[in-house]
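Bit of a strange request maybe. I'm writing a small parser for structure token strings and I need a real example to test against, not something I typed by hand. Could someone generate the tokens for this chain?
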Amino acid sequence: MDRRFIWAMVLMMVIIITPTFFMKPPAKPPAARPDTAQVERGRPDTAAAPAPGALSAATETPAAPAETVTVASPLYEYGISTRGGALVSAVMREYKALDPAHRGQLAQLLQPGKPVHQLAFEVGRDTIDLSTWDFVVNGGTAPRTLPEGGTETVTLTGTRNGVTVDLAYTFRARDYQMDIAGTVRGIGAVGGHLLVNVGSGFRQTEADSAGNFYEFGVVTKTDESKQLKFSALDPGERRTLSGPFEWAAVKSKYFVVALLALDSTRPQISGVVVQDDSLHAKGAHRAETRVALPVPADGRFDYSLYLGAMEYPRLKVIGHDFYDINPYGWPGFRTLIRPIAVGARWLLVHMHQQFNLAYGLVLVLFGVMIRVVLWPLNQKGMRASLKMQALQPEMQRLQDKYKDDPQTMQREVMMLYKRENVNPFSGCWPVLLPWPILLALFFVFQNTIELRGQAFLWLPDLSLKDPLYIIPVLMGLSMFGLNKVGMSGMPPTPQTKMMLYFLPVMMTVLFVNFASGLNLYYFVQNLVSIPQQFMLAKERKAAQAAREAGVTVHTKKPK
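Reply from user aminoacidic:
Good idea to test on real output. This should exercise your parser:
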């Protein structure tokens, strides 16, 4: 999909800009961090992780059925199991599942039997796996409900074979970020590594399951954010990503679980091990992901865990470039695209919330606003084009006169431009200016959770393609109408015919599987531009008639 959009932009630029020069003489997914060898155990500055399925030497059978402690707020409902002390459920109260099997239900992020934040300790050559431990919850297992703006701490304690683990979760009512603190006692003052299993990707929650699976991956942060998509792994492949990392995360298209080690006075993430699940179906890639954190000799550890929606304001406020976990733009273009995308996203959400408008209507208004803002620039650019057309006879004369002396011809043409106060590129900028906005909106629709599942008229989801293919066809027809009106009075050339007939067809084909909201925006842009093109076409015809009249008078004067 990204490659199709790039080709669309490139071809539009070639087709639209090329005529101005006649007036004068499946790739592979992003490369992952290179594999590194498994490093020696017990060193706090290197990655360490157990082989898949490694267990503690203690294998006692649990004595009691597991219970689940639920912690609820207006944003979420998390469930902590007394078996292993991990998170076994994560319900998003502000988002519903869109997949056919669970459509209409609140979105449950975690897969059945696949807990998140399952802990193990690696000490020397031994691995103590807490997944079978029974924990006792301080204060009992009754449900906890957080008051507005409040916090809640759930403390668990587990003991086996002389080893005791204390674990505390601190939740905040209006935040998907929770603080984790704990202590391990009874293993001696030898330190080690805490191994945190952050899952193998979320439960399927999206209508476009293929697009969601494509976004499954691991993102890590050092000086910059790097992503390893699960689809880049071979079946059964295991990769070790060497830190230190400030944070490491497993993400889908709209949701993320991330371990945040942001306190510079505490150990950072030493490494991440990603193990592909060789049983995955084609296109449905999952990979078990474990994060390693050094544990000092006193056995204490603390960090934060983010488990929830990738809402840009929440990611931004955490800092440390955590918002880049769901980037707007491709590497190399983000510096240009991100500010425009962030501004466009803010304006769309703001208009939706402040005026209580459906996002479809917001897009219509947004398209009108952009064209109104660009109206003066379009006027200036199109009138510059009219000046260029008026100079064509003189330019042709110079080209014929100096056809054997290109340097002189170029100098005379530039002097003509200067004498007539014409910039040959001034007609291009009004055409190019809307493109960064269009490109930014491509990423807004691809990454912005607020637009997820938003319906408008016959369109079931503005972030997905139109299942009836109506809006891309309307977009193509509007482009044809815009070009037809805009080229009225222009001499027919191969370039103008290409813009009139080929460009709308090409754009329709390229945009047919893009987000229907993006097609809607472009359709509105074209419609709003038609009156201006009509006015400019009238000016062009009038100028052409004046030139023809002037030529006739001039030729009669010598007589």
